[in-house]
Amino acid sequence: MPLSGLVSYPNKEDSDESNCHGQESNSSLSNTLSGSVEIQQGSIAENPSTIVQPFPSSVAILAIPRPPPAPIVVLHPHKPTVIAVQHVRRMRGGAQSHLMRCSDGNYYVVKFSNNPQHLRVLANEMFAGGLAEATGLPVPQTEVIEVGGWLVSHTPELTIQLEAITMPCNAGLQFGSRYAVSPLEGQVWDSLPAIVLARVRNLPTFVGMLAMDKWTGNADWRQAAFWRTMRQRRAFASMFLCI
Questions:
Q1: At what angle do helices 22-46 and 12-20 cross, to 10 degrees?
Q2: HSE of 108, CA atoms in CB hemisphere, 13 A
Q3: Is residue 182 within 8 Å of residue 107, measured between CB atoms?
Q4: Helices (H), the chain
């Protein structure tokens, strides 16, 4: 766009004179532009509602205080420690778990950290149990059970039997899966006849457990416990995760 459209000269003579002399044209142009700038500044000063503020520098931006980071969301609230208070009996299985009554009034199948199958079995079952419970499958509730040294030393049955030696179970934090039903309130079976098995209330959940086994890569055979209370006539199935 030509400058003549932006700059207005006082009269034609000044315009012709400026065209003839380059220096005078430049000086006239600068004077005209400076005058326009002064007019604009004057108009801004006369209007008190217009406030021109400089853009903050990078140093000022870095100096702006930032809000503190959001706190970590706790998925599970703090729960009191579950403590084993009484040994009931030894359970079957390669991990040589024990049925124990605990401080919350429930019974748990406790697997100890020095079991013959290795310590990682406890971590695998804890993780897989949480996944299965989140999907709504009928699996026992898992807990970390604290077994005191006094209970171990005063209970001769709390031992791990190997081929050549018998050693006491470790004291401390162990893995526990809640027993299907209290021995004082109901019955538990490891297997049922085919006729009775067809009457299990949640029998279709075996299909969901099959999908769970394929997803987690479970190569062990499927274990289940069937239970009912004294007032119930049909049994329920509770799945065990042995990974």
A1: 130
A2: 24
A3: yes
A4: 12-20, 22-46, 58-63, 120-134, 149-153, 194-197, 205-216
Per-residue pLDDT of the chain (243 residues; tens, 9 = 90+): 444 444 444 444 444 444 444 444 445 544 544 444 444 444 444 455 555 555 455 444 445 556 665 554 444 556 678 999 999 999 888 889 999 999 999 999 999 999 988 888 888 888 888 888 888 888 888 899 999 999 999 999 999 998 888 999 999 999 999 988 877 877 887 877 777 788 888 888 888 888 888 888 877 777 788 878 878 788 878 877 655
Query: What are the residue ranges spanned by the domains of the chain?
Result: 3-54, 82-240
Six token digits for residue 231: 């007032």
Is 205 within 8 Å of 138 (Cβ atoms)?
A: yes
Place of tokens 């993780």: 127
Rounded CA separation 153/111 (Å): 17
CB distance 100 to 90 below 8 Å? no
CB atoms within 10 A of CB 32: 16
Q: Are 124 and 243 in contact (CB under 8 A)?
A: yes
The position carrying tokens 């207005």 is 8
**Dihedral over Cα of 35, 40, 45, 51: its sign:** negative
SS3 227: strand
Closest of 157, 15, 135, 13 to residue 84, by C-alpha: 157
